[in-house]
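re: ur question from yesterday

yeah so i grabbed the chain u mentioned. its 388 aa long if i counted rite. heres the sequnce exactly as i have it in my notes:
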Amino acid sequence: MRVGIITTSYPRFPGDFAGSFVADLASALARSGLAVDVWAPHAPGLAASEVADGVMVHRFRYAPGPLERVAYGDGIANNLRRHPSAVLGLPGFVRALKRAGRQAAASCDVVHVNWAQTAAMVAEPRMRVPMVVTAHGTDVRLARERGGRMLRELRRGVASPPVAEVIAVSAELAADLRALAPHVRGVTVVATGVERELLDRERVVRHAKGPLRIAYVGRLLASKGVHDLADAFLAFDRDATLTIAGGGPEEGPLAWRFVQAGAEGRVRFLGAVPRPEALDVMADADVVVVPSHAEGCGVVAIEASALGVPVLATRVGVHPELLRHDELLFEPRDAPALAGRLRALADDPALRARLAEEARARVEASYTWDALAGRIAEVYRRALERSA
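ran it thru and got these structure tokens back, copy pasting raw so excuse formatting
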């Protein structure tokens, strides 16, 4: 079977976060024996095509070099809002996506499109191969919050020909998708995964004494709950340090809050870091906090769990399925609850170790890319049968 994957985000260099989960899936599918081609946006300095980890990657051009600013960076929605030059490149971007869809359909047995609104741009009724669409979370959230065109495109992207199968990366997202797009045929829940090598990585030896080492990894956005984390950390009445790996518009306001509170000596800002360094930050922590207000899946929680580190996370996305225990979950925007969870874990190292080991076992059983690739290949087979 030859699969054509279409995405608006794909790693541009080793360690790049952009679309890394799409690349990991593509590589796992290739290892399983499928032939995999990927179509992704071009960016300055990239080759038009290359083979990476057994996957043929095609980079589609959509504007003169300086105007290729629609993709990557802070994401398409933020790029269009903040950069006028990105808006100028949008018509060419849409045309290039449609062209990529035709190329994939002409050479592959199945076309797999990431993000529902992207699928709406790619789908053509006359496409002669089935399409599989993965909803990752931002597509559903934008449709729910903005309605209008975003909602119409979501519905077209998951429920119009030639879409044969839809994947959601968490049970919560699948429920939202069914509510927003009642005509969707069926939704299969397949989470995002991690490389099996994370499970084999040497574990950091942790000691009960010393400050609790808390880590946050991700974009510094208000929607990521970073101010809730700040509130909880400043209210936390135990000896602790906080390492923040990630960049974004809230970095300055966050840093100023810690300075005003006299806590800057206990907080370390690393800025945006490559993925290997982000994994190092998580592996070295006693607790990783994921305070997002919404998540499609929650890759950071899965990665930290694979590394054997306990995770405190909001009850969104895949977090309830992965973590399961009330000691590790709290409601979005509930900083006092987060502070209480931190206090309980700080006072009980044995509890931290037990909960971390249980989550790690769940990752090993259900969240490695090789396991997930088998489930997605089965979705492809169903799509082919339905199309036939």
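noticed a couple things. The longest strand covers residues 35-41. also The mean pLDDT is 92.
anyway ttyl
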